[in-house]
Amino acid sequence: MSRRRADWPADPESLPHPVVDNHTHLETVLRETDDGGWRDDDGGSREGVDDGAGEVWTPSSAKRVQAHLDRAERVGVTRHVQVGCDLDAVTWTDAAVRADRRLLGAVAIHPNEAVLHAGVREMAPDGLEPDPRPRHETPLDEAIARVEEVARGNERVRCIGETGLDFFRAGERGREVQRETFRAHVALAKELDLVLQIHDRDAHDAVVEVLEADGAPERTVFHCFSGDVELARRCAEHGWFMSFAGPVTFRANDELRRAAEAAGPDLVLLETDAPYLTPHPFRGRPNAPYLAALTMRTLAEVLGLELAAACRTVEQNSLALYGPW
Ligand SMILES: [Zn+2]
Fold it and tell me: How many other C-beta atoms can be found within 10 angstroms of the C-beta atom of residue 173?
């Protein structure tokens, strides 16, 4: 893992119809690429274990966000769901979605963040040491109350997420905290009639169990869908949306492409999960919303649709979920 200046891939060919990036972390894009030098780490999203202080919204943030959104717009990625899922990012997202009409917001306390707010200091199954930041001094219930406050107070926050279970990163006690936090977020999404975006890492069955037991919100999305055909069919039975990120373009992921095919056009969404999970052939380089145009081409092929028709489908599904913006 080395740090160097962000080496952005060239703009992909423009899409024939506008699409929505259903899940991006612009505050992390700014922090990890523009500020800190890019970390060459293809291990996927590291939310909850970042080593920097949280990004703070400043007047210059608006300009920098605008530059990323302008670049995306030029290739047909015209609208975005900005996901703030740590306490600092929740506040950042509240400000960001007021500053640029192309953004809607999603807010939550990420499962790996919840564990730290709860004071659990277990080593992760992969050997990662807990690394609490100043924000984790806030007790978990207060952190969740802050999510609710922002979601209630901002009409452009239309989603609770990402929330769910991360068994890749959590030990025994952490999993318990994650489950209760997930349930609290499910209840909040239902109470406020908002979309729910789910983070499911190595926890497919347990996530479905919670949703079936408590009752899922009417509009539920598996963000960065990572299941197989069977999970895709289970989601489809419930009418849960499945959002596909860069991994659907990776050469080795035939299984994931079969899952996307099984999801079918009616329930499919597109996302970057930027700044990580950069689509093929740019793995290892930084990701940003403009690169959703690459993932969109793969998704169209997998769905067996012409590119323009697939783009229209993604746009319509996104608007049906969140309402117009
Ligand atoms: Zn994410």
Answer: 14
